[in-house]
Specification:
By secondary structure, the chain is of the alpha+beta class. It is 31% helix and 20% strand.
Length: 631
Amino acid sequence: MLQHFATSNFPNIADYAFLSDCETNCLIAPSGAVEWFCLPRPDSPSVFTALLDRSGGSFRVGPFGVQVPAARRYLPGTLVLETTWQTPTGWLVVRDALTMGPWHNVDERSKTHRRSPTDNDAEHCLLRTIRCIYGTVDLSMNCEPVFDYARVGATWVYPNSDYCQVIAKADGQPSLTLTSSLRIGVEGRAAMARTKMSVGDSHFVALTFSELPPPENTAHAHRKIDETGEFWREWLTQGSFPDHPWRVFLQSSALALKGLSYAPTGALLAAATTSLPETPQGERNWDYRYTWIRDSTFALWGLYTLGFDREANDFFFFIHDVTRDNPGDLQIMYGVGGERHLEESTLDHLSGYDDARPVRIGNGAYGQQQHDVWGALLDSIYLHTRSREQMPEELWPIVVGQVEQASAHWRAPDRGMWEVRGEPQHFTSSKIMCWVALDRGVRLARLHDSNATADKWQAIADEIHEDILTNGVDERGVLVQRYGDDALDASLLMAPLVRFLPPDDPRIRATVLAIADELTHEGLVLRYRVHETDDGLAGEEGTFTICSFWLVSALVEIGEVERAHALCERLLSHASSLGLYAEELDPITGRHLGNFPQAFTHLALINAVTHVIRAEENSHASGFNPANRQG
């Protein structure tokens, strides 16, 4: 396993804070600099890109000459960031939020929203309030946007006769308006301000990116921050969380998932970033600012479990939208607006995070053949339908289309769950998900009173099941990565979770324990051994945190609750100081690797933590009802 210790001038990935208004999002470094911000959508070109190149533009508010804060936190129950600074002469508190306000499309319908309007909506404003709470502090503000992934410089203009507002413009780029109680000057391509603050002084800086007005004054700005915090707390209160020491991790994950949602369509981003490396200074760098159908099952599991039915329904209806017109041509992933073409290219002018190249935008995996997608979609439909105890007629053509696709293709090789870029293989987990497609299709057909169809599909499901047990199990009784090979794969931890075999089947127990004992590094789970798998790439990779959380759930399933608790406790200890996770962990250093924050990781955390809590609560009961699944 490759070890890497941070020595560059890039912050550690886990040290970034994540803000969202459910239409766009940004990452803020410990220095107080916004280093990643894409407008007007989270998959649009970035306007601050220092995350991927230190000259890529950023937006800092903080004390002059001090880069390391005394403390950072989210205000409890919110995505409002509070950073406290100590300087030689005083103390400063900065609060940052992408503000939320009342629904504003009241005179005409929104041109972007497809989901039902709610009471709140994004205000398209990155708001930063500053208070001096002790002594005196020299405050510095520096806003330097560089549009189109740091390829197009901005021109600042004053719209009025004072120093309170400047506008950054460039041909073909979004307009940014910077409004402040500070006096703003322009130095080259940066808008700057500086002042000496004394105890009790307060200021604000607002970066707006639509026609909606910025705060009118400092008092109004503080109210906007408070109202945004109230929005997040009110939303979190709608959920259902156990009275348990791990509740805070469930709540942090719920907030991260809500922040990674795209409210206009209901889509769920896999992550907020592109090209944060899976291998330090390596080539395993991908754009995750899209929606994967595979995530839908895990998202619905997690959201329904925590009581966030509205968000689950919004994501389900996004999935419904993108599959309705092409039920027989389902892609593995889509843009947040439902776009089908996500052409991949590289940004060779950027140095990459900590010199990890290439920097990619778009994702060529959208055209891959991955056979697990039909099972993921049908499991989602099954979860959604079971929550209503009826089969909506409009979903039936989609069910038929996906079952037919799985039936027609389950014998063929594919790229597998991990989207390998080597040659297609007969991946066992893909076959299992084809079985899931048929199995859930049978259940849905019976709800639809299509019993003859259900009987036909059941016969195919039985055939797939037998084929997997004949060709996908080795001499030890362990499910293997691909037919004809003994390599292990963490995706097989899904076998008990999707009920391919009952948890007490000896093949499930053997598989879970083999992965736990042989596919781990320092106790954390690898996706696969890179030397055993033709993934088309060079280099090592870290342990995949989602796989480690899957192992927690699978250990609970086979009755190894104490071992599951110990692993879950260890994984939770690796959360960032703000409760967030990237895609991978270096098991030696604990350093986070890959795109950030990662929805898949937080979804797996919810499932794992819920598994452990429920198992321990029911330790004296006969039989265990696993998280998110009643049968």
